[in-house]
Amino acid sequence: MSNRILLNIGFGNTVTLNQVVAIIQPGSAPVKRFIREKRDGGGLIDATMGKKVRALIITKAGLVVLSAISVASLTARMEGAGGDDSGAKTVRGLTDE
Q: Beta-carbon neighbour count of residue 90 at 10 Å?
């Protein structure tokens, strides 16, 4: 059995930390174009619950996850900053594929 570390990306949604390739800000025109292409191609997961997009999480599988949590907050959660409520937790017993 292996351990997976889950990253809380807001509103009860999580991603597996070892699957994250990049976390980027959504402000530039090329990034907005990238979001539109992924939305049209079916590779987009919107986890914002209707809130403003503040971060894009790109996974190893090529999926893009939109988050309403800022890049700085997600990065701090990844690094384990913030004490016990860091937003990252270990789940035991799941197998990596």
A: 9
Is this model's pTM higher than 0.70 or not?
yes
Other CB atoms within 10 A of residue 70 CB: 14
| Angle at 43 (CA atoms; ends 42, 47), nearest 5 degrees | 105
> In this structure, what token pair is assigned to residue 79?
């690094």
Q: For residue 18, report the phi and psi dihedrals to the nearest 5 degrees.
A: -75, -5
Number of residues written out for the chain: 97
Across the beta sheet with 20-24, the strand order is 20-24, 55-59, 64-67, 44-46
Residue-wise pLDDT for 14-48, tens only, equals 999 999 999 999 999 999 999 999 999 999 999 99
